[in-house]
Amino acid sequence: MTDLKDTYRRNFIKFLLASPLLKFGGLAFAQEGGKFDPDIEFLLSVKKLLIEKPEEALDVFDLEAVARNTLPPAHYGYIATGVSDELSQIANRDAYKKIRLKARRLMAMKDIDTSVEIFGRKWASPVVIAPTGSHQAFHPDGELAVARAAKEKDQLMILSTAASTPIEEVVEARGEPVWSQLYAGADWDETLKIIKRAENTDAPVIVMTVDLVGGGFRETVERFKRLDYRDCSTCHGEGGRNGLKPMYEGLDLEAYRGGDQVFDWDLVKRVRDATDMKLVIKGISHEEDAKLCLRNGVDGIMVSNHGGRAQVSARGTIEVLPEVIKAVKGRIPVLVDGGIRRGEDVFKALALGATAIDIGRPYLWGLGSFGQAGVERVLELLDTELRIVMTQMGTASIDQINEKSLDIKS
């Protein structure tokens, strides 16, 4: 087994050194004059440099490094992947680098309030746990570990339709209803079953994801799979633990996944009319679509390109955000995800008008490295960094954050 793990590691390092993933990320992905820093392979290969406890993490990238070292290659690849040449994922991150902060001085800053209210519920932080699937691929406790971390930190959690844990168990672990994501299927009757199941758990919000139309080639995960020599049939095959996602139980999967359902605004209206839950549309990246959300009774918007996992050559979501904010004119909450890795990224999104922000990969790094404690550490790091930036910017509460603190490069 040791020899096999060493083989994984050697092949993994060779892959990373030739991968577009090296164009972004933390310390281990630094470049020098267009060439890779000669210390990269050393940093990736010396296990002693990895943190051993979540509290040792100095930033979220420390947890990424542990997850990369701990998870099977295919599972880590699933977290890491974007589509095609990764330009959309890279754009999400790079767009934040174009925004600089203008600090204030002598503001007598004492108490910093990071709380935010969304649909009448006050949360301790504007950092929201975005819907991501298959958490048990990253830790045995899966979504339950994430739910318990969200409960501990009093932060909003959105559960994926592709979760590996039933929504009923997640709600019990969270201690209150969670928001529920919706992947609308090809058949309306089967889609309605998912909506009603979420409704039966008292979910206050249904988050309809609309940005996977057309799909895309997730090349990075396919390359990682080539480094993974395990027999995965026990998990992914017929009858395996993850063979059927819990939210799909009781559905006619052939009807749900097939057929000729057209995904359009009429479908949005059907979802709107089918439930009393608030309806948030996830995946908006154009101001005209934001306006159509208003016309069709949508209660909230999430600016998203699926973390660079769907549309090719997308703009960074933080670049799209101001257009959407201008279009909705404060009438509904607007959340944004994609590329958020630091507290200052959270601040920048809030300054551009976001009600809150969503994270995906960072909390999965925490989950894959240390389970619940890792997720809690990610939330703690981002919230602590946000408080520091708010202090430097002279903003004592979220509602004081605005564009005056920003200097945006063209």
Notes on the protein architecture:
This protein has helices at 2-17, 40-45, 60-70, 73-80, 87-97, 142-153, 167-174, 188-200, 219-225, 233-236, 253-257, 265-274, 287-295, 317-328, 343-351, 361-370, 372-393; strands spanning 31-32, 35-36, 99-101, 116-118, 121-123, 127-129, 158-159, 179-182, 205-209, 278-284, 300-303, 334-337, 356-359, 406-408. It has 17 helices and 14 strands. It has an eight-stranded parallel sheet. The chain has a two-stranded antiparallel ribbon with strand order 1-2. Strands 3-14 form a two-stranded antiparallel ribbon. α6 (142-153) runs parallel beside α7 and α6 (142-153) runs parallel beside α17 (372-393). α15 (343-351) links the parallel β12 and β13. The protein is α/β, with parallel strands linked by helices and 410 residues long.
How is this fold's topology laid out?
Blueprint: H1 2-17, E1 31-32, E2 35-36, H2 40-45, H3 60-70, H4 73-80, H5 87-97, E3 99-101, E4 116-118, E5 121-123, E6 127-129, H6 142-153, E7 158-159, H7 167-174, E8 179-182, H8 188-200, E9 205-209, H9 219-225, H10 233-236, H11 253-257, H12 265-274, E10 278-284, H13 287-295, E11 300-303, H14 317-328, E12 334-337, H15 343-351, E13 356-359, H16 361-370, H17 372-393, E14 406-408
Parallel strand pairs: 6-13, 7-8, 8-9, 9-10, 10-11, 11-12, 12-13
Antiparallel strand pairs: 1-2, 3-14, 4-5
Helix pairs in contact: 3-16, 4-9, 6-7, 6-17, 13-14, 15-17, 16-17
Which architecture name of the largest domain does CATH use?
Alpha-Beta Barrel
| Strand-residue proportion | 5-15%
Query: So how many helices?
Result: 17
- What level of helicity do the residues show? 40-55%
CATH fold node name of the largest domain: TIM Barrel
- Number of DSSP strand runs: 14
CATH class of the largest domain: Alpha Beta
Terminal residue distance:
52 Å
What characteristic shape results from the CA principal axes?
globular
- Based on helices, strands and strand pairing, what is the structural class? alpha/beta
